[in-house]
Inverse folding.
């Protein structure tokens, strides 16, 4: 059976984006490449929802955006985690771990 | 730039973005992304046309994204505007309070002047219109000299009969 890429719920994408930005400020393209490479294509992440997520997170105050110069000297919009974003990521991460642990418990009954 | 925390003291602030600027910045951002992706795919050996098509496919519904981003950015800008205004007001109030604290004699003089003025206005010596102690069966007449405030109307008041 061919493996179908999993759909991503909105909240999950937000967490992935925040986690990616933990490495430092990045423009949207870098976030896109990082998420894509890291998930080995298992999660099909289109770029449109990714940019929506970035701007939504900016609105929520979890990331701050600033124009800067990219490696090839072009103007790009860089996103950086804010302290509130860091806290949000920590909270979401623990929710995710508990969720995953609960699912595993059901899948692998002792 | 907001850090989502308490407002920092800023010596300059970014100008508020208008609808056109928001649109242009979103176009710049999306163009940067697509160009970067096309360049990367071309570097992998794809012809430019095919690379462009693939970059667009990978992006997904770009028009929907445009609409969404514009809406969110307008909201971000409106929130920033409100925050800046409140912050300005706070700074003004703090500044005024500091200035007054720096000149206690002046502040005291102002307070006494205001207190005397306000007290006099509401004391029984000059009862305000409509609050006389006498039964007010007759409409109160106020001589011009006693009137607590001179009321000037712009244009002739309609109730006033024109003077002969």
């Amino acid at each position: 059976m061919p493996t179908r890429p999993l759909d991503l719920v909105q909240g999950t994408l937000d967490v992935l984006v925040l986690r990616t930005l933990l490495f430092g400020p990045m423009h949207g393209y870098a976030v896109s490449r990082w998420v894509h490479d890291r998930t080995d294509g298992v999660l099909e992440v289109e770029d449109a929802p990714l940019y929506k997520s970035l701007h939504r997170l900016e609105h929520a105050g979890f990331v701050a955006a600033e124009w800067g110069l990219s490696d090839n000297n072009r103007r790009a919009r860089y996103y950086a985690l804010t302290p509130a974003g860091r806290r949000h990521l920590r909270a979401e991460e623990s929710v995710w771990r508990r969720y995953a642990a609960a699912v595993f418990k059901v899948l692998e009954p002792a | 730039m907001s850090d989502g925390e308490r407002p920092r003291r800023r010596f300059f602030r970014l100008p508020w973005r208008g609808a056109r600027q928001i649109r242009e910045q979103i176009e710049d951002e999306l163009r940067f992304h697509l160009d970067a992706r096309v360049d990367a795919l071309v570097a992998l050996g794809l012809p430019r046309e095919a690379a462009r098509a693939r970059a667009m496919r990978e992006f997904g519904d770009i028009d929907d994204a445009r609409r969404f981003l514009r809406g969110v950015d307008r909201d971000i800008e409106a929130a920033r505007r409100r925050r800046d205004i409140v912050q300005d007001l706070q700074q003004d109030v703090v500044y005024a309070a500091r200035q007054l604290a720096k000149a206690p004699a002046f502040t005291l003089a102002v307070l006494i002047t205001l207190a005397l003025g306000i007290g006099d206005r509401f004391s029984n010596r000059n009862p305000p219109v409509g609050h006389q102690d006498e039964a007010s069966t007759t409409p109160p007449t106020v001589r011009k000299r006693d009137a607590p405030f001179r009321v000037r109307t712009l244009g002739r008041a309609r109730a006033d009969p024109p003077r002969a």
Q: What stands out?
A: Residues 10-107 of chain A form a domain with the Arc Repressor Mutant, subunit A fold (CATH 1.10.10.10). The two ends of chain A are 28 Å apart (CA to CA).
